[in-house]
User: Fold this.
Amino acid sequence: TMRAYSTFLDTLGWAQEGLDYLGRVKDVLETKSSLSRTEQVALAHVLTSRSLFAFRMGKYEQAHTMLTRSLEILRSINEPRILVEAVTFMGIITIITGDLVGSSKLFMEGLQIARDINDQWYEALCLTEVVGINLMTGTANDIHKQFQSAVEAWRKTGDQRFTAFGLTSLSLGAMAARKYDDAYAALEESLAINSSIGDRTGLANSYRGLGLVEQAQGKHAEALGLFRSSLQIFTELGARWD
Assistant:
């Protein structure tokens, strides 16, 4: 399936390969003067999946354009399995523009769709992102507990890679509560998982998180070494580090 293919390439950090291959698939679909419903769904899914790789490479405007078109297709037909992906990815891109209100609405929509179709994976992702926005806006006092709930949602999916992502997110809530030991423990587990499954993007994020924990405690030399490890991986992947 498209989701499995994208996950495979994304785990390996092969963003350019995914962007190029799915671009060729998109071009083939677009040669047709009219598309059947199945082909419309396929095109929307290709655009959504391709936006992920554009995002990984820091091509945010390109990702936004792809998602806008995908959403136009998906909102005109009843295909919630793909719509939940496009809505969620658009939420992530919208965060980058600084529109936290808009992104929160998208994640809440994605969360509702995921629950309606019993998609535990996207339910966990939208929940994690909603909690992340709560952290950025300071709208919750129990942010650490909210992130813990998100991690439990990821554990239920059985997805090790995104359990690690949830743990990295959890560390931010722990740091906000000045629970540095909890933050470090979450990141160490995240680091171990990412190392075992070969997720280089996740590994870079784990190192960056550990650097933030050390920096928050005044351990600047240790933080610098961890940031360098993170930067090296991100640079090798061709990603933006910001």
About this structure: The mean pLDDT is 92. The CA atoms of residues 132 and 138 lie 10 Å apart. The first helix runs from residue 2 to 12.
